[in-house]
Specification:
single chain, 3 helices, CD59 glycoprotein, alpha+beta, CD59, flat, secreted, two-stranded antiparallel ribbon, signal, LY6_UPA_recep-like
Length: 119
């Protein structure tokens, strides 16, 4: 086996191993908890985000898909009208209630924009 074939074989083996050693995100997971969640899981391969959704006094934490991190997707899945949510992309990042997106100001802004448009 010549040197170039050996290098190609080595690169092939490294690339093959890299594809099989994927990174799995870890997220907190609790349903309708009045307290901060302490349970965490390793997410499925297709779940590449952590979610925290907050209803008045209850919070739900789970693994989620980035493509579903929209107000409409979250509202449809949880059948909710007024809530705040957070999608994040690091291990165990959905514990902090810090920067949650609220649907109430979004709704008020939409109504105000429509009202201003027709004045």
């Amino acid at each position: 086996m010549d040197k170039s074939n050996c290098i190609l074989l080595t690169v092939f083996i490294i690339v093959t191993i890299s594809f099989h050693c994927g990174y799995a995100l870890r997220c907190y997971t609790c349903e309708q908890s009045p307290f901060l969640c302490r349970t965490n899981v390793t997410c499925h391969e297709e779940e590449d985000a952590c979610l925290q959704i907050r209803f008045v006094n209850l919070r739900t934490y789970s693994c989620w898909k980035t493509s579903r991190c929209t107000t409409k997707e979250v509202a449809d899945h949880f059948n909710a009208d007024s809530f705040r949510f957070l999608c994040c992309y690091r291990d165990l990042c959905n514990k902090t209630p810090g920067l949650l997106v609220s649907t109430t100001p979004l709704g008020i802004s939409a109504v105000a924009a429509l009202w201003m448009k027709y004045l």
